[in-house]
Write the structure tokens for this entry.
Amino acid sequence: MRAELQCRPQGLREAQGRADEGFVATHSASKRRMHRPLWVHLRALRLATILVAALAVGPALAPAPAGAVVTKVESTTVGLQPRSTSLPLWLFEHPPGQVEFVNPTGNPVVGASDTYAIYWDPTDHYHGDWQHLIDTFFRSMGASSGSLASVFAVDAQYTDAANRHALYKTTSEGAYTDTNSYPASGCEDPHPLEAKDLIGPIVGKNHTPVCLTDKQIQQELEGFLAQHSLGKGMGTIFYLLTPPGVTVCLDAGGPSGHCSDYKPSVESYKNSFCSYHSDVSPTSPTSGDANTILYGVIPWTAGGLADGHLTLTDESIPAYDCQDGGYDPSSKPIEELEKKKEKTVKEVEEFEKETPTEQAKQELKESLEGPHQQEPNQVPCPSPDGYCDTGLADLIVNQISVEQQNIVTNPLLNAWHDPSNSKEATDECRNFFAPVIGGGVSAVEGTFAGTLFNQSLGGSSYYLNTAFNLASQELPYPGIGCLPGVRLEPKFTAPNPVNTGEVVGFDGMESDITLDAGTAFSSAGVPHSTYATYTWNFGDGSPTVSGYAAGAPSANSPASSPCAAPWEAPCAASTFHSYQYGGTYDVTLTVTDVGGNTASFSEPVTVVGPAPPSGGSSSGGGASILAPSATPVAPLTAQTVAPPPSTPAPVLGASVQSLSLKKALNSGLAVRYTTSEQVAGSIQVLLDSATAKRLGVHGATATGLPAGTPRSIVVGTAVLVTTKAGQGTIHIKFSTRNASRLKHTRKLKLMLRLFARNASRQSPQTTTLLSTVVLTP
């Protein structure tokens, strides 16, 4: 039995007595506001009380040393995480080339996964608004599968001996509330949450503490799967979630137990965790099979901040130790976030002279600064239950995200990890959430949480721990170790017009390829380095050149060999070519990164010299980037390059399948095409330069447009290659940067340019289609 834990950093459980004193001190003042609606009065009362508690409580416990340790807790092997809310020091602790993150024997990863959310909650303590937020995340995670602008896309670089990728290919199979009764507690809860109107913990009707062991979790899962005829296997992941008041332990629990809760002591806190994943694989423990159960355990580790169902003591407990505290250096200096500023003697004296109302305002202002948990999906107070706690589920969502990444890359706890400290994919980037793309770091009155988010999935915003990019350890550019998503942007700069017979150079190393290095396995299961693959189409009917980057051939270019060490042969990061005839040729670079993602980019090259014989066209095709959408518009209108009578140009048709701007920016623009024969070419999405400048959107200049067409830039492209006549759908993605700027417009007018050449070598003919598309929210 194995399990991996996401342990929380420094928690806040001290000064509970001072919280009760705060209640007494503010009670009389709040009585004067009883004429307001009840929920307003209750919020104001809790606000002052929580404020005193929050100010009194601080990260007083000494953080544990950095680094995870694989240890055995009774019969369960676990990987413990560091617990520290200090900023991740990635650049200092993990310089390129100094992190060993391996899968030495090629143990299995999860190529595609179906996910189930199971709320084990027979006493109905998992709030409906929490469940809705979490279930929506599962659906959004599935809906955005395949998107590069997602933290989950980083995992595709990790492979196993079958060279299967840990793809971002996830389907939500829905959620279910499991009302099977809890068994007798198998452990001792170190510090159960208390309900405000009851004597005893907030659990069942009899208010008996519930403390579950991992063995009891496994037994419930096995019974639940049989009960509902659910399948097992390496492609299915079950998430079991427990409500507030139910603790999960990996041992007997108590003050020194390894539990999802803890007492305010260094030992108890040191052993606590936020979530973990494991497996039950009785018939194939090292490689998994149809009997394997992959599962993640997500206890309620979101604290009780603004949850009025709890006592004032527990209601004041934040849980940013299971997140990152909203560290945003662009918003606040790091030192201000790590430690609250101490008042001078003069400031204390001036504070004491203030009226109670002014003191409360000042304390409130201070409480809304500094590190806070981030709840991008918080709703304005009150929540449906009259309190301000809906956003607490955002912290649970982050734990699900962490476990999803770790499960697909290390499902049986024997695949991708750092052997020196047993860290998994997200552990190498623990507490690294940057860069944020929206929201605010300061806490909002009522929820006491910020609204930062760094992910947009399925139209919803989330704040998720970033993933480790092993490619950053192999090649220095881009070389970013912790990522919220990946980029795949092939680039090269076409030369000035050249003469026939002259040697023309094309440098693909301009490209911005995040997943540019990885690991592949031989047929014998031996790992070796691999790199992104570059393929060049020169647009003149000559053979394509294909090979790995970052290397380039040391002789006989444009061939792809020989290739100088240490680069993988064949290689084709850069190439030379010469043209026999004059004309304009579309040179296309197609890149496949180590995660299996493919994109292309094309630029025209003008060659001065005699035209090709037989009057054939000298144009070729190619261009770049991918994703999905849906709802037809008018078909594109064709502009055909004049063909010779004996060889007709290809007949093309195309339509855009959705006019939704939001869908296009989140999932990509889907173009349905038809072709009368085998063709090769590309589809480009163009934006007029004036609009692009106003919105701050960047892209290559679009060349070869008809007279009278506004100057435009290319904001997205996709390769079109067919082997016969037929139809299909091409998905064109926008870069993360451009998508973030385009979303600010109410109406987006784009132009599509499709050009494709037939397969005739004697007289290749090209057809170009142009159309205007208007996208609206």
